[in-house]
Amino acid sequence: MVSQWSTHRATGQALVGDDRLIVPSQLARIYVSPRKRAQRTLELLNLGCRDRLPWQEQQQTQPLDIRTDAKVQIEEDIREWDYGEYEGLTTVTIKEQRKKNGEGAWDIWRDGCPGGESPADVTNRLDRLINDIRSRFHEKSIGQPKTNNIPSDVLLVAHGHILRAFAMRWIKRELTEGVSLLLEAGGVGTLSYEHHNIDEPAILLGGAFMVNVVETAGRPK
């Protein structure tokens, strides 16, 4: 899963490739938030999608470097948390307003947003997507011998709060417990399964990779 960013293409070069964190040929589906910034982030990844991106009216030219047949799907279930009356406000501002109004302490993971979504609302839509991903792409591949090499990786491109919530629901944790996970803009997280068992969803804290990938990705060849 990838959080939205606004940096240059070298970042995508550092993340994408046959020996990188995101391997285009192994992608089965790409889900992207309806928001334009997330869609721009996907463009910057330069995955080499065969089909035109859904928000592009037409594909100007056929991509020269086709690296994935994965379909790109604009997915409402990973849109950012609906902040309702708190849209556009920082956490500091919200807490100051609540204190001034004589309201109690506030935490989005516990209380949600007035006029927007509650933790239960967010949980429902994320669980729906997670169940769909597992049934469509993982049940027949996780724990199975890699003989047919059918792509089964799924990429999500969305936003900070919703991706942190997604990670919690992936491992079946309640949002109301509090989400002690950080995901910076342009950050990448990996969700997987322990013991290659679909009944043991896990967060992959770190994977082996070449230490000079990021440093060399943007250098002229």
Concise account of the structure shown:
The protein is of the alpha/beta class and 221 residues long.
Oligomer: single chain
Helicity, as a percent range: 25-40%
Shape: globular
How far is it from the N-terminal to the C-terminal residue, by CA? 29 Å
The gyration radius over C-alpha positions equals 19 Å
Nearest-integer average pLDDT:
88
The biggest sheet amounts to:
4 strands, parallel
Q: Count the strands?
A: 6
Number of helices: 7
As a percent range, the share of strand residues is 5-15%
Low-confidence sequence ranges: none
Order of helices and strands: EHEHEHHHEHEEH
Structural class: alpha/beta
What topology, given as strand order, has the largest sheet?
Answer: 1-4-2-3
Description:
This protein is of the alpha/beta class. The chain is built from seven helices and six strands. A four-stranded parallel sheet has the order 1-4-2-3, sandwiched between helices. A two-stranded antiparallel ribbon has the order 5-6. Helix 5 packs across helix 6. The radius of gyration is 19 Å and the shape is globular.
Tags for this model:
221 residues, alpha/beta, 4-stranded parallel β-sheet, two-stranded antiparallel sheet, 7 helices, 6 strands, 30% helix, 12% strand
Secondary structure blueprint with pairings:
Blueprint: E1 2-3, H1 9-15, E2 27-32, H2 36-45, E3 71-74, H3 91-100, H4 108-111, H5 119-138, E4 153-158, H6 160-170, E5 190-193, E6 201-204, H7 213-217
Parallel strand pairs: 1-4, 2-3, 2-4
Antiparallel strand pairs: 5-6
Helix pairs in contact: 5-6
